[in-house]
């Protein structure tokens, strides 16, 4: 009797399964991988890394902007504001083009004003007519005020070509007539001295405003208070003049305060145009920038002329 147990298949009634067919011979290839006995091609090779990786260069720009680089209050053309609290020129070329345009317009305005003042001083028939027809002076001053308020308050006029240049031209001609009329009552030497002092003062203030770390655009409260002081001093001078006649001391005090005020205005407007401060003009406000600088310079000239000039 055989002690070996019967096969598993014969006991359970199952037939023994046929053996698996042999795998077809495949040539040995190191790039072929076998999964479950069937050949599959090898996966793609990874891209090689550079031997010496380098840092991004200066021209590299990150695809996502830094949220800190866009401060609150950034300029929006739809807002209608001439300046913003923290807007920045992102491109230096845009800022330089804006500054160049502002000072080219300012130069043209000052040349027109110098021409009209020279005409009123040197052409005696014109000088005589201007001094005898004061009504045209008041018309010119009213035109100056209307165009100034329009350009400052109406951004659709200030930003649209050619209406902005037409309004600026009318403003410049009207204010040049006002300055020329005032200059016609002084002798030529006094006017030339006032022009020289004004040029030196404006150049010095502009260079100081550009180079200094003092942010004049933060001094709006101080400038506002000083403006009120100058206004009240002017009213006091008018009352004293009507009651007791001209007072030289009051005139000098008022002229000194007014010159200080417009010097601060010039520093404030210069920093607004140059940018990099708390407040700055947007690149679309070249008319506004030229308008304010021109007003500061010409008013400084008239104040200095009233202080150092002598009547003709």
Automatic annotation (TrEMBL):
It comes from Clonorchis sinensis (Chinese liver fluke). GO terms for biological process: negative regulation of apoptotic signaling pathway. The chain crosses the membrane at residues 102-123, 135-153, 165-185, 191-210, 222-243, 249-268, 289-309. GO terms for cellular component: endoplasmic reticulum; Golgi apparatus; membrane. Keywords: Membrane, Transmembrane, Transmembrane helix. It is found in: Membrane. Residues 1-22 are annotated as: Disordered. It is a multi-pass membrane protein. Pfam families: Bax1-I. InterPro entries: Bax_inhibitor_1-related. Belongs to the BI1 family. This is Protein lifeguard 3.
């Amino acid at each position: 009797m055989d002690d070996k147990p019967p096969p598993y298949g014969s006991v359970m009634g199952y037939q023994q399964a046929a053996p698996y067919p042999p795998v077809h011979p495949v040539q040995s290839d190191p790039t072929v991988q076998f999964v479950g006995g069937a050949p599959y091609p090898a996966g793609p090779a990874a891209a090689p890394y550079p031997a010496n990786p380098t840092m991004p260069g200066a021209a590299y720009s990150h695809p996502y902007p830094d949220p800190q680089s866009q401060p609150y209050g950034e300029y929006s053309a739809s807002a209608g504001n001439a300046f913003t609290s923290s807007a920045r020129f992102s491109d230096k070329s845009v800022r330089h083009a804006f500054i160049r345009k502002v000072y080219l317009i300012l130069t043209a305005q000052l040349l027109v004003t110098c021409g009209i003042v020279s005409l009123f001083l040197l052409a005696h028939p014109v000088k005589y007519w201007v001094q005898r027809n004061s009504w045209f002076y008041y018309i010119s001053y009213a035109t100056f005020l209307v165009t100034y308020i329009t350009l400052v308050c109406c951004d659709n006029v200030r930003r649209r070509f050619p209406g902005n240049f037409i309004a600026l031209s009318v403003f410049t001609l009207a204010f040049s007539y006002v300055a020329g009329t005032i200059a016609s009552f002084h002798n030529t030497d006094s006017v030339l001295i006032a022009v020289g002092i004004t040029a030196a003062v404006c150049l010095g203030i502009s260079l100081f405003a550009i180079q200094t770390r003092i942010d004049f655009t933060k001094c709006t409260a101080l400038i506002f208070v000083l403006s009120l002081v100058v206004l009240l001093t002017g009213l006091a001078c008018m009352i004293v003049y009507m009651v007791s006649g001209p007072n030289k001391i009051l005139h000098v005090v008022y002229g000194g305060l007014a010159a200080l005020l417009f010097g601060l205005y010039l520093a404030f407007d210069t920093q607004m145009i140059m940018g990099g401060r708390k407040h700055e003009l947007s690149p679309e406000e070249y008319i506004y920038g030229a308008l304010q600088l021109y007003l500061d310079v010409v008013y400084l000239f008239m104040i200095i002329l009233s202080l150092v000039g002598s009547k003709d």
